[in-house]
Amino acid sequence: MEAVTIHPPEGFEVCPTSTQTEIRFRPTVKSKPKWEDFGMVSGFFIRNMGEIVEYTGGHKSDPINRNTWPTKEEAEACLALSQLCQWRDKYNEGWKPDYVGTSRLPQIYIQDNQIAKYESATISNPLTFKTRETRDKFIEDFRELIETAKPLL
Known about the structure:
This protein is of the alpha+beta class and 153 residues long. Helix content is 25%, strand content 24%. The protein starts with 11 loop residues before the first strand and ends with a helix.
C-alpha cells in the first residue's frame, strides 16, 4: 500500500490518536507569546538616574529592552508612579491593604481624566490608603506627580 500524505486544514493538525482508518484533526496548539518573539522594539526607557531616554531605530526584542515604554508620556508616568508608591508606603506607615473581607478602603483613581477619590473593599488599586485623611493629604502633597502618573492609573 502506498503512503498517503494528509494535509490538515489551516489552523489544525492531525491528532496523535488518529488511526489508519480514522483521521482526526484538532486545532493547532500555539505556545504562549514570548517577549523574544515580539519583534522590533522602540520607545522610551528610564536610565538608572531617572533620565528618560529614547530607544530609537527599533531593536530586536530581548531581555535588555523589556523595560521600554511605547511613549515618552508612559515612561514619565512609570517614573512618577514608582515615586508615588514609595511615598504611599511612607504615608501609610507600613500599613498594607487587605482586599479580602475588609471595609471600604480610601483610594485615588482617575475618572474623566481628573484625580478622583474612591473607596472600595474589593478593587485593588496602587494608590490605596489606610485612612481618608491620609489619602486627602497625599493628594494635596503630590497632585503634580499624580497628574504625571495618570496614563498608568
